[in-house]
Design goal:
The protein is of the alpha+beta class. It has a domain of about 130 residues: CAP (Pathogenesis-related Protein p14a). It has a five-stranded mixed beta sheet with strand order 1-5-7-6-3. A two-stranded antiparallel ribbon has the order 2-4. A hairpin with a 6-residue loop joins strand 6 and strand 7. Helix 1 packs parallel to helix 4 and helix 4 packs across helix 5. It is globular. The protein starts with 10 loop residues before the first strand and ends with a strand. The relative contact order is 0.24. InterPro entries: CAP_dom (IPR014044), CAP_sf (IPR035940). Keywords: Signal. This is CAP domain-containing protein.
């Protein structure tokens, strides 16, 4: 699904839902390096990999306590509107989200596949979190527009991203961001999960 909005808001979003028992997805296809992005807003609710900018050393900060609190508050507000229990910040999922945002920024590629993982399920397991169910929202775009607040609002307004946020059995949450080497894009990852027994 895509729609055009004012050209002053370059926006690209993507999501994937992965259940703990799902088979791993097929390997991602090769992606051309850093195409010029269109001058309009583009919303995508599920797509292939998107080259957003050039690859290189990225700025990969640790998400601050204030950022985690703000993200959790907005995420839980969406869940409350749906009559669901709130999520709790989880330090392991925090690392999972931060590492994936950094990996995307280093590659200049918005994708659910990691450099050495097929998706969020594999990344969570690598960090020692054994999910029963896990989902992930990702975003990438101009740093001035892709603030924490703006990204969370876009996920809340996007039906399929909101669907990830409002999976009833989710309990834990993590969020991370990174800035591409050339400074033209900020990459975001949010992970929602519940542990298996």
């Amino acid at each position: 699904m895509s729609r055009s909005l004012p050209p002053t808001l370059p926006t690209i979003l993507a999501l994937a839902l992965v259940a703990g028992c799902a088979a791993p997805p097929a390997p991602a296809p090769e992606v051309a390096a850093a195409p010029a992005l269109p001058g309009k807003v583009i919303w995508t609710d599920g797509h292939g990999d998107l080259a957003v900018t050039t690859a290189g050393a990225a700025a990969c900060p640790t998400t601050s306590t204030a950022e985690v609190s703000a993200a959790l508050a907005r995420t839980n507000a969406v869940r409350r509107e749906a009559g669901l229990a709130p999520l709790t910040a989880n330090p392991v999922l925090q690392r999972v989200a931060e590492k994936h945002a950094c990996d995307m920024a280093r590659r200049g590629l918005m994708t659910h596949a990691g450099t050495s993982t097929t998706g969020p399920l594999a990344r969570a397991k690598q960090e020692g979190y054994r999910p029963r169910v896990i989902s992930e929202n990702i975003a990438a775009g101009a740093p001035g527009r892709f603030t924490l607040t703006g990204t969370l609002e876009q996920w809340a307004l996007s039906p399929k991203h909101r669907a990830n946020i409002t999976i009833a059995q989710m309990q834990d949450f993590g969020i991370g961001h990174a800035v591409a080497a050339d400074g033209t894009a900020t990459f975001w990852t949010a992970v929602y999960a519940t542990k298996g027994h």
